[in-house]
Design a protein that fits this description.
This protein is mainly alpha-helical. Helices cover 60% and strands 6% of the residues. A three-stranded antiparallel beta sheet has the order 1-2-3, with no helix packed on it. A hairpin with a 2-residue loop joins strand 2 and strand 3 (50-54).
């Protein structure tokens, strides 16, 4: 029970941190497009002072059908698919929130006002997603941390360090290690997370 309680609190903390952190050293600011009277709606990117249309094209990866060795492997696969479908939307939300919050922070020159804005966003996000996140299982929570790293290219440790400071990151890492976890774990789609990445690609392609 103690471990479940810890994992849930840890999960909520990381989600709030991930959706409140700013991207450092990012030159490109993506702006939402104005509502057009005619034509098509596209996003704009301001790059080195020039405004350009931004159209994202998703890479489509074709994977051969999976052949299971036995029924046990098939059940394991089905369970993992179910859990990934449950948490993937939250990882996508975290990525989007990071972008939106970063845009607002870029318009706030005062550091005190920036901190106030981040605190406000934390309260909103906790109220909006807290109840749902606390109902995730431990396995789903671990997967979500992995997927957020996949979507944002930042480990939980790095994000806590940037937002809360090195000392807080050290404390949370120490506590996590007691429970056999590591906030510095990185998503590795080519090795240990290859199986997960395959399923995610199938989900994003609409195959699952």
């Amino acid at each position: 029970m103690m471990k479940v309680s810890f994992m849930k609190k840890w999960l909520i903390l990381n989600i709030l941190l991930l959706t409140s952190i700013t991207f450092r050293g990012q030159d490109t600011i993506i702006q939402p497009p104005p509502k057009p009277e005619h034509g098509y709606l596209v996003y704009l990117a301001v790059i080195d002072g020039d405004t350009m249309p931004l159209i994202r094209l998703r890479t489509i990866t074709i994977i051969p059908p999976r052949v299971f060795k036995n029924e046990r492997e098939r059940r394991r696969y089905t369970r993992l698919v179910r859990n990934l479908k449950k948490v993937l939307p939250y990882a996508k939300i975290a990525q989007t929130k990071l972008l939106i919050i970063n845009q607002h922070l870029a318009e706030i020159p005062d550091e005190k006002a920036r901190k106030k804005y981040l605190k406000q966003q934390e309260r909103i996000l906790k109220k909006q997603y807290g109840p749902e996140l606390t109902n995730l299982t431990i396995s789903q929570g671990r997967l979500l941390i992995k997927l957020i790293d996949r979507e944002t290219n930042n480990t939980s440790y790095d994000l806590i360090k940037q937002f809360r400071g090195a000392f807080t990151a050290f404390i949370w890492q120490s506590v996590a290690r007691v429970f056999g976890e590591n906030l510095k774990d990185e998503y590795n789609p080519k090795e240990e997370d290859k199986y997960i990445e395959e399923i995610l690609i199938r989900i994003e392609n609409g195959e699952l």
